[in-house]
Amino acid sequence: MITKAFRPKKMRKRQYLLQEGNVSKYTGFIIKGAMRQYYIDEKGLEHVVYLFIENYWATDRESFYNLTPSIYNIEASENTELLIITRAELVELMKKIPALVEMIRVMDDRNAIAMQKRISANISNTAEERYEEFIKNYPHFAQRFPQHQIASFLGIAKETLSRIKRKPSR
After folding, report:
1. pLDDT recorded at residue 148
2. Distance from C-alpha of 26 to C-alpha of 159, rounded to nearest angstrom
3. Whole-angstrom Cα distance, residue 152 to residue 160?
4. Is residue 170 over pLDDT 70?
5. Rounded to whole angstroms, what are the CA distances from 69 to 47, 61, 165?
6. Can you give 81-136 as a three-state secondary structure string?
7. In b/e form, how buried is each residue of 50-60, taking b as 16+ CB within 10 angstroms?
């Protein structure tokens, strides 16, 4: 049932899974590749909210579940292969497979915990501490995403990140 519900989708680098103003029709499980979720503020500055790689789910959760227009863009940072499913198909699958509901709950809990830690770090940690924590928790991301996107994800200027990276390790 699960295999039938998901469809493979290949995306080229810089291709959008979702663009601002559109409803997120799909959630996608990344098999191969990397993606980023971001928005552009009123000054034209890009703010990266999420970075996704293999075994991550890529979607704007609010838009996907509430069927509302998204404020985000989700773009492939590399050529990417996903398994996608619509909200209606996912709801139907959850009715047929109760264990899927529990799996999604656990994933949602883990996501909420990670987001809570990230918010706390952004409020209380220095730029250097945020970068050190990022490298500790996501060492493989540093090779997959450009420095300016990592800086945006961490909420720091790319020049600040360059300075941090040039400093000798403690």
Report:
1. 94
2. 35
3. 11
4. no
5. 18, 11, 38
6. EEEEEEHHHHHHHHHHCHHHHHHHHHHHHHHHHHHHHHHHHHHHCCHHHHHHHHHH
7. bbbbeeebbbb
Residue 33 in tokens: 């590749």
- Angle among Cα 80, 84, 88 to the nearest 5 degrees reads 160
Give residue 169's pLDDT.
61
Question: Taking a C-beta distance cutoff of 8 angstroms, is the pair 101, 94 a contact?
Answer: yes
Sheet holding 26-32, edge to edge: 7-11, 80-86, 26-32, 57-58
pTM of the predicted structure, to 2 decimals: 0.89
In degrees and rounded to multiples of 5, residue 31 shows phi and psi of: -90, -40
Rounded Cα gap, residues 160 and 81, in angstroms: 33
